[in-house]
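So, who can interpret the following?
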Amino acid sequence: MTILNYETGPIKAEAAFTSDFPVASEINIHDLVNMQEIERRSMDVRPGMRHKYMPLGFDRFSGALWTGGRYLFDTWENVKDYERFTSKELEFEPGVKFWSRPFFINVQRYIWRVAGAHDLKPLATSHHVVRFERFSTSHTNLEQVLKDAWPALRDKAQSLDLSSVWLLFNEDEHQVSIVTVAAKNDTGDAVDDSFRALARLESIPSLSLLLPAELKLAKLFDRTNPILAQWLPLSRIVGGEPSAYPMSPPLPAPTVEKQH
């Protein structure tokens, strides 16, 4: 099977969801990749999900695994439904709601409206590393300001040879966020190629510098990670791959039975 149904160009998505958290030390990378591949099958069937990137990182001091998600949804109603479902209904251990699992530590999660999102390169071949930046702002009319700024930010991402860019905002939380995605150049050395891709994306000056000074942005969060997994419901529903592991190798792929 191949990845189907994801085209380059503007993405028709009104909403996004993000989460970030470390996992407890008893969960290793192989546990994590198998767990999410099994649990994905109860989650990516929720209405309106376009796709998810699952990042993987390590705390530089404790060595703890960090993960989470960067999702796009077609409508605000569907992202609200996903947040409600995962918070109030979903249980993989009886009596324990999904976000309350004891091995998820200090989960930070947000829902967002989309000012703009664009795949500049094919998701199937060119989405390997992802950067997520989150900012506070004192501005009270984010939608119009960000939509006006979006074309310049998108064009800059294209000039930097990035693979995808999203510009997001949350009026209630007074926050703005930017998701950027880049490709890994394949020279045959998977480890070195991965380090180079991460270092390049991390070193690019933040696209927030293109946003109006009136927003008075203050950075709250900035992480660049390999994409451990992609959830691909639009591909699954037309008979393509339901998920992908673009950084395997060097990261592990799941060893559980594939979904058919």
Notes: The first helix runs from residue 29 to 43.
